[in-house]
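Quick log. Single chain, no ligands specified.
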Amino acid sequence: MQKNTLVVLAAGMGSRYGGLKQMDTMSKEGDTIIDFSLYDAIQAGFKKVVFIVREEFLERFKENFDAKLDGKIEVTYVCQEITKVPSGYPIHPERKKPWGTGHALLVTKEVVTDNFVVINGDDFYSREAFQTIIGELEQLDKNSHDMCMVGFNLDKTISENGYVSRGQCYVNEANELTDVVERTHIEKIDGKIFRKNDAGELVEMENETTVSMNFWGFTPKFLEALEQDFVGFMQERSNELKSEFFIPTVVNNVIQSGKGSVKVLKSNAQWYGVTYAEDKPVVTKAIAQLKENNTYPKHLW
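-> predicted structure:
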């Protein structure tokens, strides 16, 4: 029987936030954003969680999550480190950050054996998103390259405190993803949303643009595609100081090759996240309100 698995990307450095935001508390009761994702995932029927963390923070994660999750969901940890790459490729001696979300997911290859969902550890997606994706996840043929994702409206994923990165999704009439383009600089200016193009010029975007928040549903076959593409990435870019290997790049390659398709499930939920320290009061206020109206219990665990 398939064990629906949740993979949590929690190895980010939090450079714009100014600290390990994945472990920062967002409520009076001491909840992190990850706590809410875990609570929602367990309610939706996920049976296993894999945390991708940095080795230096592994014990902090275990201290925070092991006891509260005991008996509720199977827990596994893997560590993303700069040196966890195919041998023989030179690494820039001054490089400090790992190789991005694609590399992070690849380090789960030995422990993820069933269909799985990937999320960011610092994004609050809403219960609706988990309930939406699990039914589609269970329909994916484990031996196929088919995928699914939850897409959000751009205007519900913007920080008021600076620019953000989002994957802009292009979707056909069959609700299948045809392309996803990483927009690394999107910001709100005078009530409108703009992205910077390669020339540094501002291009206005529609509020209802579908964007990816790294809420993907994959089969184990995706990890094989990831591994193959990462070898090519390292051959070309291993000695660069800041280059990153992103999940959407591999998703695109699978689509364009015709190996698999991506069903886009749309969520109208309000996203909350902490890109900047100034985002925290917005998130804590929203969480307090969700507890007050009994969307969540006062004490999750």
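Residues 15-19 have pLDDT under 50 and may be disordered.
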